[in-house]
Design goal:
8-stranded parallel β-barrel, two-stranded antiparallel ribbon, Oye-like, alpha/beta, Alkene reductase
């Protein structure tokens, strides 16, 4: 069996190793109109030795925004701002996919502005609070009851995703990953308590998987299935979600996906390894895993590298370790110590805790 340091092909790309940088929201899109910045280009360039970088989540439309200072991919200025980012990664020998995320109900009218309101499968508020502007001190408000997506709204939302995916390719990304995990719009449709619809997009399993499957098909038609991936997180309860019939739900979803997708990305929640195994058996293509079999496996780290050789995954993705170890692949390869990330600098801020983590060679000089 291959190891994590062996090449693998996804779509038309050959990755030099099987260690991916997971999508990591950093909320530093300080360019005009939530555009990418030169600091973001440097951040991703530093991590280009990953087999694949999956970018931080970018909203496919204005109403899809869920946090302050997150980037978009829905207008021309944003597309132009991402070009230096993808160019920097490619010049450093790397590969980068754009992640697209619609927050759905996890937003607020004060955050969105211009009279926009959060849209979701049903009029059920998310649990928790959200920061509603970038100023200091931080102001947080409870999530409101969202407006319900009509079937026409669903068609328009899918079109927004397809347009944003095309924008991502135009901006130089090698492909697109759809964020179907962690409680955002796609997973809201999969949920039994966020999706109370009685039309064809709700009810039983067939209805709850309809939106993600139609979305994947539409984006695949626009940019090609070989440049598209989907990320899911079965059993995630973020923002109060519940997913009844979990195994049937996700196995039905996986069986309905185009076989030609670049990869399927599973963010594994502790206690669901049996479902991970079943999805691995069902999915014939490249299976990317962010592994957390047990609570103490959080965050995923070197203790999970054996999962590729064991056959559970083709590619492993790592999140917070890539924040503090820009040369994570090299550190894994030589068994070097890993730097710990400063969680206080995860979101917003400047270069501190962003581009100032040194590579191993800089540490040992």
């Amino acid at each position: 069996m291959p190891s994590v340091f062996d090449p693998v092909t996804i779509g038309s790309l050959t990755l030099p190793n099987r260690i991916a940088m997971a999508p990591l929201t950093r909320r530093r899109a300080y360019g005009e109109g939530l555009s990418a910045t030169p600091l973001m280009a440097e951040y991703y360039r530093q991590r280009a030795t990953a087999g694949l970088i999956v970018s931080e989540a970018a909203q496919p439309s204005r109403v899809g925004q869920g946090y302050t200072d997150t980037p978009g991919l829905h207008d021309a200025a944003q597309v132009e701002s991402w070009r230096p980012v993808t160019a920097a990664v490619h010049e450093a020998g790397g590969r980068i996919y754009a992640q697209l995320m619609h927050a759905g109900r996890n937003s607020h009218p004060e955050l969105l502005g211009d009279g926009l309101r959060p849209l979701a499968p049903s009029a059920v508020a998310a649990e928790g609070e959200v920061r509603v502007h970038s100023g200091e001190p931080a102001v947080r408000e409870p999530y409101p009851v969202p407006d319900v997506l009509s079937e026409r709204d669903i068609v328009e939302t899918i079109a927004d995703f397809a347009d944003a995916a095309e924008n991502a390719i135009e901006a130089g990304f090698d492909g697109v990953e759809l964020h179907g995990a962690y409680g955002y719009l796609i997973q809201q449709f999969l949920s039994g308590n966020a999706n109370l619809r009685t039309d064809r997009y709700g009810g039983g399993v067939a209805g709850r998987v309809r939106f993600p499957l139609e979305l994947v098909d539409a984006v695949a038609e626009r940019i090609g299935a070989e440049r598209l991936a989907l990320r899911i997180s079965p059993g995630c309860t973020a923002f109060g979600l519940d997913e009844p019939g979990l195994h049937e739900l996700y196995l039905t979803l996986v069986r309905g996906l185009p076989r030609e997708l670049a990869y399927l990305h599973v963010f594994e929640f502790p206690g669901h390894r049996d479902l991970t195994v079943r999805m691995r058996e069902e999915w014939p293509g490249v299976f990317m895993l962010n592994p957390h079999e047990h609570p103490h496996d959080w965050p995923a780290g070197p203790g999970q590298l054996h999962l590729v050789a064991d056959g559970l995954a083709d590619v492993l993705s790592f999140g917070s370790l890539f924040i503090s170890n820009p040369d994570l692949v090299h550190r894994f390869r030589v068994g070097a110590p890993l730097a710990q990330a400063d969680e206080a600098t995860f979101y917003r801020g400047d270069h501190h805790g962003y581009t100032d983590y040194p590579a191993l060679a800089e540490v040992t000089v």
